[in-house]
Description:
This protein is α+β, with helices and mostly antiparallel strands. It has 2 domains: 36 residues; 142 residues, no CATH class.
Amino acid sequence: MNPSPRQFRTRTTIAACAALFLAAALALPAAAQKPKPTPEPHPAPHTVYRLDYVIRQLRGGRVINQRRYELLAREGSGEATLSVGNRVPIITGVPTGGIQYIPVGMYITAQISPGPRVPVLNTQVKLTAMRAKAAGSGTGNPLTNNPALKAFSVEVTVGVIPSAAMTLATLDDVTSNDRYQISVTAIPQKP
């Protein structure tokens, strides 16, 4: 007896579904056995930090002067440098009238390297400034009328604590009762 067209379509549909199911069942273990290709390792993105330096001058425990300097540094790249100031003429010889120019101001370098647990900041801060002259200290001699300079330099290597102020150094001025405090905050920047 021949099946009706409706029965024929039903049997054909069931056979097609069974064949599809069987093919999927056989393909699953084969796909599971194939090793997945390993992706190429991508280097981790290097974080850019805004370094916020604060130099405070204290007298008797109170802040009498404060300066702020900011620069950007990328972890794992070269050195970032900030330099601001003037060149001051200094008379080097009375008979010849020789003049030498000395840089006065702030000079900061920073380099951030990847560390074992946290990034590492290697920084150097140099300050050269003119001292205020006491009244009546000049004698008219050109050599003694040169400005008196004060200078300090600090080089520090420290682990970076993101967005936290880190005191790098505290220095006493050797010719006065002033104290200088240098701190930096490394703030990660969004890409």
